[in-house]
Amino acid sequence: MVDNGTVSERIYEIVLLISVICNLGENHKIVGGQFVRSQNICEYLISNMSESVNIVDISSCTRYQLFSGFLKSLASSRRIVIIPGPNLLRLVAWISVIGFARKFVIVAVGGWIPEVARDDKRVLDFLRKVNSVWVQTAGLQSSLKTAGVRANLLLNFKNGLVPIRPSRHDSPRLKVVFFSRVSEQKGIFEAIEAVSHLAELCDLDIYGPLHECSLDLQNIKNVRYLGVLSSDEIQLRLSSYDLLLFPTYYPGEGFPGVLIDAFFSGITVIASNWKFNIKH
């Protein structure tokens, strides 16, 4: 279970006068782990820091605006918080050969940073020079420390979540939900196959954006695709199910936000033994 009480202490350790460079998903229109974590951290900083917070949203700016915002951040900020994907991390590592690495704080989304650092010496050199790198699991922290990086632990979190009891239903059938990016690597086809073999016992509802896959459910009567949930719908909707399936084998998995949603919604999770899932 995520202890949101420790999040305040961790984030206060990170920042003084700050800029945040991140991807907010086209003004919150896109959903996904990176965008949600970026949104949560930005909202927290704006709400709780007395210092001014400058946000550079790479999803809504041109390359010139990004470069200009980056240079302004270097000039005006004591700390620059980067919430990167792999491409942004490589770009910042390349730009930062001019210096200033100690200004940077890297907040990781997912579990991909050790692999990128292993394959790109410039990224590894940059990570060794920055103020700190904050990752989602103890395993990631240990891996980066072994490589000489100042790695700290900042568990995934979501603002404003309060645990609720799952709602009861009268159906004798098990209500199962898949809530994630709907893609092959997130295990959607494994989830569908498993439930299709249990047609007499349970039903599966699928929520999430379709990502490089299509679903043919015409001949599977106990599986439905129900689209994308808005952030204010997630907890109440999940609480109406008995079980969440999360058979992911996505290479960049860290501390998936869907597990936080499920825990706070009071429902059981069956997940693949993949990456750091077993630690949660």
Describe this structure in words.
With 280 residues, the protein is α/β, with parallel strands linked by helices. Helices cover 37% and strands 18% of the residues. The chain is built from eleven helices and eleven strands. It has helices at residues 4-14, 25-28, 33-48, 63-76, 86-95, 113-119, 121-129, 138-146, 188-196, 234-238, 257-265; strands at 18-22, 53-57, 79-83, 104-107, 132-135, 151-153, 174-179, 202-207, 223-225, 243-246, 268-271. A six-stranded parallel beta sheet has the order 2-1-3-4-5-6, with helices on both faces. Strands 9-8-7-10-11 form a five-stranded parallel beta sheet, with helices on both faces. Helix 8 links the parallel strand 5 (132-135) and strand 6 (151-153). Helix 6 (113-119) crosses helix 7. The radius of gyration is 20 Å and the shape is elongated. It starts with a helix and ends in a 9-residue tail after the last strand. The model is unreliable at 12-16 (pLDDT under 50).
